[in-house]
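Usage

Read records sequentially. Each one opens with the input sequence:
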Amino acid sequence: MKILLTGATGYIGKRLLPSLVEAGHEVICCVRDINRFYPPESLKDKITTIQLDLLDETTLDAIPKDIDGAYYLVHSMSASSDYKTLEQQSATNFRKAISETKVQHVIYLSGIVNEDNLSEHLASRKNVEDELKKGPYNFTTLRAGIIIGSGSASFEIIRDLVEKLPIMITPKWLKTKCQPIGISDVISFLSKTLFNPKTFNQNFDIGGPDILSYKDMLLNFGKVRNLKRTILIVPVMTPKLSSYWLYFVTSTSYKLAASLVNSMKIEVICRNNDLASILNITPLSYEESLKKAFSKIENNEIVSSWKDAYVSSGMAINISDFIEVPKYGCFKDSRSMVYESREKCVNKIWSIGGKTGWYYGNWLWKIRGHLDKFFGGVGLRRGRTNRNSIQIGDALDFWRVLYANKEEGRLLLFAEMKLPGEAWLEFKLDSGKLIQTATFRPLGLLGRAYWFMVLPFHGFIFKGMLKKLVT
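and closes with the structure output:
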């Protein structure tokens, strides 16, 4: 069967793709920016990639007319303050376009919406569901709450809180009940639902066997990690303060934190487990899901991470717009040095950032990260998804990977920190030398003043980093 997969570069889409290919389907991957989609080599001859933007109806002609099934895995939470309108428009455009194909079954992954008073985030998900089910095809909605898996937003937020804070003073929404589910079970539900007549034109809640408060989830996480934690709940923390608390303590963005806080006031418990019985799936417990996630992390097998999504930076960019480093109207700091071993040098470059750090003056990088976060930027909180591999589109601390070719020996990064301008950092091996170039395109007088203010630090940091990389 030919399956259309929207959100192919997203957290869920990246994990669902191998499952669909393994089931024998031909998969059409929809991406907004084809330059940031690098599927595994083993899948490339079994998939087709098309570039489209669901907010631009003119691009939707790229959808093949002969598709049999489709997954809608798109949402805009935290991408804009007006995400509700954007999600509605995307769903409408998708429904119109897909209705002109011979699609038999459309599956949408949503959030659990079993209360009358929904948060704006969950209300938006419900609106998308209502829009998509208007089409002339069989339609199924799977509704999930907290998803636990290596790289998931929920997992990373819980991890940040528990591993950083031995004592937590928390808002009262930590008493709210939810029903978490492991990412492997989500993928099983999504893949096994496809073309199953028993699921047509219905919606199902999916969750694990445990119903827990958010406080229980934090404490159980600590138990799995052998960390004793004390949690004090106070009734006076407003949603805005709660959002700032999450933003400064965890790796989430403020917009995402605000959306999550509003959603966490509402219980997200499954109404039933009908779908688990229909599909013969026995979901993992919360602790089993945590242990599985840490197994993936320890083995460096994280397939996808929410941090690599563009919304993690709060910047609406396309890689294609920045892949060419400007030559005019810019300040440059370019240095080169002969390397001792090409292989060793490349491996060091491909390990940069995250827990490895930046090889020299790491304390200065950390200060810059804290300052960036204080002014609403991403800081160094995102780290990197994998220790040794880098793909185009990955987040790397407060940078975004624009180009990465290990054989060529070239890595190009674009800054997603708060700056009065735009910045690139390039590493390139050429003629026995490593050429390291920082480029800054200033915005107005403030941008120029910024460059000259940080220039003395460049002489210290960039020179030291280059020396460490080549030796």
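Summary fields computed downstream for this record:
- The CA atoms of residues 215 and 408 lie 49 Å apart.
- The chain has 13 helices and 19 strands.
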